Amino acid sequence: MLSTHQKQICAVKLPNPVHRLPFIEFITLMALTTSLVALSIDAMIPALPDIGQALNVEDSNDNQLVIAMVFLGMAVGQIFFGPFSDSYGRKPSLYLSLAVFVVGCLLSATATNFTVMLVGRLLQGIGASGPRVVPMALIRDEYEGRGMARIMSLIMMVFILVPMLAPMFGQLIVYLSNWRGIFYSFLLMAMMLSLWFAFRQPETLAPEKRKPFTLKVILNGIKEVLKTRKAFGYTLSVGVASGPFLAYLSTAQPILEEQYGLGATFTIYFAVLALSIGIASFVNSKMVIKYGMRFLSHYALTVIIVISVLFLLLMFFMRSEPPLMFFMGYLIITLFSMGIIFGNMNALAMEPLGHIAGLGAAVVGSLSTLISVPIGIVIGQAYQQSVMPLVVGFLLCTLIALALMFWAEKGATEPVSGS
């Protein structure tokens, strides 16, 4: 239950509030919509070896591109669907993006070579960018400051169930049919979301607040975002910090299933690791009101730096790959910290962009993803039956991300209230 003070903090700020969904339904719908991205990524992880074998992929590390292409597609798609949602509304933007997603699913489901598979995955990423951008813009239409951060953390708490269960779901589909069946299941998810939005979720962008959908307006909006030090700095920071996380998603299957010999049970360990992000989101939703987004983000980045240094020292003295439980402990702490980072740093980047919420969400998401994808690919391709590239990646990227945060803040201190 929300206290009176928390309700005031999370108060809707639209001058003419539309009829809203019940709070729990709103959180659930936004979480499921956003989770389409996670489903399209994590459900594929157990199927990567089968896809590589069926499509004659020579280097098993190239299977990671099935994951990376979705992120690349999202980086491209967000820069379109964000401005589109600012011009035509949140719901039409979502409908169009889901249509592109469906086309990509059909292409990948019927692929006979790896190139077609990757093109389909790119389209899925472009389409999934709508479900990523629209909820952020929709929330920004109605919430701000720490209230927005709290809502985003609660949404991530629900959303985290999908990364926990998606690999098991993908594994089950492969067992019952084959990897192509996973893509058809994505179609059903997209259809369900379209119907739910159509019949339940009202449009939150008033007609008088809509902006023309022209290249000039888009470029001017992008320029405004890029020259806003806070927004730009936090976007760069979250992009760099997300790079090793993308590498983790791409290499989780070979590390856990093959290197550590877990076989099909690796999905259970993956679920435990995903749970740590969900717990972090819940903890963040309770702590952000009291401590603020900046303090928690600084703390989380520092924890990753310290634990990565300690883990590398352990590997140095052991002169071998660490036991599974040590590696799991490292990942649980690291991913917990990433859960703190995601909700807060995205909210910090969006905070000064309320007047261009759709375009702001697009630029923040697109730029951060464009930064994280090449970082994730480089770290992932460096994997050679050792977890060291991943740990070093987390260490270096969080150091850079922390420096970028200080640059964005210019030494600003945490206010008593606000961010």
UniProtKB/TrEMBL annotation:
A single GO molecular function term of this UniProt record: xenobiotic transmembrane transporter activity
Location within or outside the cell: Cell inner membrane; Cell membrane
Protein name according to UniProt: Bcr/CflA family efflux transporter
Family: Belongs to the major facilitator superfamily. Bcr/CmlA family.
Membrane spanning residue stretches: 21-45, 65-82, 94-116, 151-176, 182-199, 231-250, 262-283, 295-318, 324-344, 356-380, 386-407
Keyword Magnesium part of the UniProt annotation: no
Keyword Transcription set for record: no
NCBIfam families, alphabetized: efflux_Bcr_CflA
